[in-house]
Write a structure and sequence with these properties.
The protein is α+β, with helices and mostly antiparallel strands. 20% of the residues lie in helices and 36% in strands. The chain is built from 1 helix and 16 strands.
């Protein structure tokens, strides 16, 4: 019957339009999701991170090259062949810079000899805890033995817990050290002795959130 055929035709056309709308909507949603993901990834890539300027005093022989290697990809993930080379333009100070997004960075200095051999500095891994966007400047000395005095950034056996009022420092290195706190704005505390297996109290980060980024030998 004409009426039924017309109704059937309208129904089929309506179903087709509905399917087309669903397809268009799904395509739009997928496109929006992909765009949002790309935007989020781009935003993450554009985050400023933390610039770290390494400076280490090291007396070397002709043909030697000093590098910084560490726990994060920016420092080669502990692989000497991916370590970051330092410049000897201010010898015996060696300098280089990296940008990191990590909140914990362990590192050491190494010297590569002309014959390809690698000399690692003595002692434990050095430790930094960067604060995003606030640069860190190290002032280190290549350790020829574990207790090289005034060797700069302290090793991981020196740990801390900071609050706005106090910074509690734990010396688990098994030797006495003189230490000072390095804050995010580059300032430091006074230099205080911390005995082996002992705690010491240093100033906290204050109301300005000037967080602790490292402990230094002094």
């Amino acid at each position: 019957m004409p009426t039924s055929s017309r109704a059937q035709g309208v129904g089929t056309a309506g179903a087709g339009r509905f399917l087309a709308c669903c397809t268009a909507l799904c395509t739009a949603l997928i496109g929006w999701s992909a765009s949002a993901s790309a935007a989020a990834a781009a935003s993450a890539d554009e985050q400023p991170g933390t610039p770290v300027a390494f400076r280490v005093t090291a007396v070397t022989e002709w043909g030697d090259q000093l590098f910084v290697v560490g726990s994060v990809p920016e420092l080669g993930s502990w692989a000497p062949d991916r370590a970051v080379p330092a410049s000897a333009a201010q010898y015996p100070d060696w300098t280089t810079r990296v940008q990191t997004h990590s909140v914990r960075v362990e590192f050491k200095y190494i010297v590569k000899k002309p014959d390809g051999s690698v000399v690692w500095e003595a002692g434990g891994n050095r430790l930094l805890e960067p604060q995003t966007g606030r640069g860190i400047n190290t002032a280190d000395r290549f350790r020829t033995r574990a207790d090289t005095p005034a060797s700069g950034t302290a090793p991981t056996c020196i740990t801390w817990s900071d609050s706005w009022r106090y910074t509690e420092v734990d010396n688990a290195c098994g030797a006495d050290y003189r230490l000072q706190v390095l804050f995010a704005d580059g300032s430091t505390s006074t230099c205080n002795p911390v005995a082996a297996s002992a705690y010491a109290t240093f100033p906290g980060y204050g109301t300005a959130e000037n967080r602790v980024v490292a402990m230094r030998h002094c």
